[in-house]
Design goal:
The protein has 1 helix and 8 strands, in the order H-E-E-E-E-E-E-E-E. It has a single domain, classed as Quinohemoprotein amine dehydrogenase alpha subunit, domain 2 (Lipocalin, Beta Barrel). 28% of the residues are buried. The protein is globular and about 35 Å long. The chain has an 8-stranded antiparallel barrel. It is mainly β and 139 residues long. The longest helix has 20 residues.
Amino acid sequence: MKTSLQSAVALLVLMVGLALAWPMTTSAADVAGTYKCEGENEMGGKYTGTVTIVKQDQTYRVTWKLGPRETYFGLGVLQGDVLAVSYYESRLGVVAYKVEDDSKLVGKKAMVKGDGAVTTEILTRQPDNTVLPGKTGSQ
């Protein structure tokens, strides 16, 4: 487990370094919000869910809710139009989202215990008043 954690930290450092090295374009829109998530896992299977991104000082706290018992947490930094996030819980990995516009983030992700595969995840911003699966209107 210690090696997995060290690998996750090393991957986050690499992703942050890449994000910092990327040429800066116009300032990315504020990425904080609630998103519909659509992606593929390393086995080629499809998944959907909800992603919440909350800005905390200069970092972003990311929560993926992919099912009733499948929640992941992450910590990210935004540099230009790239949000680099390390995620953890039962799986460790990294994802680098390119901010396409103020409503869409397209990510490439990899897992620490994976076989080296890079998969895609797309986040589409939801309006503030949208009730997503698993949430009630009062939340």
